[in-house]
Amino acid sequence: MDPDASSTPGAPAADARSCGILGSRLAGLAVAVPCLAMLVTAGMLRPRTAGYGTARNLGLPACSWITHRGYPCPTCGMTTSVALSVRGRVGAAWRAHPFGVVLTAGAAVLTVAGIFQLVTGRQALRKLRFGWRWAVGVVVGVLAGWGWVLAAGVAAGKWPIG
Question: Most exposed of 53, 64, 65, 121 (fewest Cβ within 10 Å)?
């Protein structure tokens, strides 16, 4: 018998299970904290009525696409959309950037799932099956939202600026 082995049957499996639960809890924390921070930060921002430019409240510069081209970049309006979404102003958020509404809902779901996993150690996040399809979905969502922002803005005479 190995002198370093535990004399309690099943102890190594219990140790492995403990490490797995700790890792699961840390993963839950690693997901919940940034998602919650994004939602709280968005709640503290004052959304700009133009539908874009709210990120300037964070000290970021104005979008150079609007400044130089007169049209918004693919993420213009996203911060405004999230800031409006956390306030429950979904219609205004959708007009600012449709994907911001989706992003807010996703961050809320990930916050809850991360906290659940942190508290229980159960693999809630794994059930979401993250992978390349999610990444493609985000890119397509941002670009589709941008297309909507451009089309609606041109139709309303909002774009081009200048």
Answer: 64
66 SS3 class: helix
- Phi, psi (deg, nearest 5) at residue 46: -95, 110
Cis omega before residue 12 (within 30°)? no
pLDDT in tens, 109-140: 999 999 999 999 999 999 888 899 999 999 99
* Cβ burial 11-27 (10 Å sphere, 16+ → b, else e): eeeeeeeeeeeeebbeb
Paired tokens of 57: 């409240």
pTM of this prediction? Answer: 0.84
Q: CB-hemisphere CA count at 13 Å for 114? A: 18
Domain map (residue ranges) of the chain: 13-52+66-156
